[in-house]
Amino acid sequence: MEDFPTVDAIRRTLADKAASAVEITKAHLSRIAASDLNSFVTVCEDDALVAARHADSQIARHGQSQLVGVPIAHKDVFCTTGVKTTCASRMLEDFVAPYDATVVTRLADAGAVVVGKTNMDEFAMGSSSENSHFGPVSNPWDTACVPGGSSGGSAAAVAAGLVPAATGTDTGGSIRQPAAFCGISGLKPTYGRVSRHGMVAFASSLDQGGPMARTATDLRLLLRHMEGHDPLDSTSADIGPTGSKPLDSLAIGIPREYWRGLDDRIAAVIDGAGAALEGLGHRRIDVSLPHTAYATPAYYVIASAEASTNLARYDGVRYGHRASAPADLDDLYFRSRSEGFGAEVKRRILVGTYALSVGYYDAYYRKAQRLRRLIRQDFLDVFGDADLILTPATPTTAFRKGAHRADDESGDPTAMYQQDVYTVPASLAGVPAVSIPCGFIDGLPVGMQLVAPHFAEDRLLAVAEAFQRETDWHLRTPGGT
Amino acid sequence: MTQGDSTRTSSGTGAASEMIDKLMRLAALKLEADERRMLKDNLDRIVALIDAMQSADTDGVEPLDHPLDGVQPLRPDRVTEDVDRDRFQGLAPAARDGLYLVPRVVDAAATGASANPPIAAARTGKRA
User: Residue A361: enclosing H or E segment and its boundaries?
Assistant: First the structure.
């Protein structure tokens, strides 16, 4: 078997009986064991081999279908019974969930073999996967660099061929930015397409699970078994599955605001991707998303406010870290939380508390929500003329570890927040967006972002697949594991 | 840390310091002195970032709570699951006899319960 097989290739291998699910699973477990990227928090070797043996018996009886026998990993934010769900936090260091996330159940029902849980920024707060209680993740293209975040463990694992696909979650770019930094494909679906049940909450009006894989075809294969209405998630959309439409000639919007101040070399790569899309029969049109500059501040107010509310549940009483020998109830609450959360999580809780506190609520939280409506309207207006939007996924390629840390008084956390400048607008609008590889700068991958109207993932993935049939950026593989 | 005043020059005393204390109290967080100094400076920068919103004209714009402008769907008012108290309470760092254990919250002398151990139990209902 090749070193970096796609989901699609593994399905064919299994269907042709060229290798068994056990053999494929063992090959990936060996690669994980040999890797020093720190991309996994937990490896489930025994459970994976049991699932692989079950897959082999299914294939022997019925042939290969769905994802039967395909190894995958889950970001450690998805609840799994019998396997720890840590969110890369000391707070949940030993937490084993009493139920499976809907995404976990659906992928298991489709026959996927889960080989482990991937590392991430604590509670999905970060853009570098350095904010992990279990240590930072390395980028396989250059291990001195970060893989992006917060789904950096999933991105690095896929890029290094440790798994052909993994789940991620995206609140403000946490699938798309690490996909771009690691040279893989990552889809943030429309808000509501994928159930959030059992996905540990960060910012509930923004969080969305999605697939990460080498190719857009694999994203489609994964999404098919992740999406769909879920009565256990009241924000889950009751809408049909993502289709597979033949492509017409599309109008691709190029939002001029995204090019202001953009690094010249990134701009040249994205321009080349736009030209390649024109070569596929589409046309580029100039469009405007006038409130783009307000997206990052509005996002950090809304996401932090929701985080401060969601993380109030961690009190040292019902589950999670508990301080030893508390003097009284307040001491139990204050010390459990202070010991359990890392610096970035505390920062966001305090910012959210500030934005929601008396006297500031209207000036910050409501203001951000008003801007959110304007930002969403920008997208709706553009989609009156354009079928898709093309932007850079990130302002830079992967940066070096430590470059944007804010762990001392001279540190500036907002430098890290600016990493999300091209991804947060789609998150606020709730529209789907995919990041796919489209070039390299100094040996590091560059990602382009395609954004579609609500629930138009079929169009998004069709264009991404067509692009990948004509280019080979997504087939390049790194040396580091 | 007031709107339009990011207190970048403050040394952690006075009004800004009081605000940090208030936020820590509201968020139930306790920070060591060096962590507190670092966070104060971090927060000043973050507030400066989010203050950029104030230049936008949002008069008459309705706040957006949900990206699809969705409404909360209601399911039939029917019991669909039983909560397994033992299973969920098995996650608790300290539980006994169906109760979550926390430090005493009622003064022992006032209740005449001085013989009780220094841990109070919070009873939970069968249904969360």
Answer: none
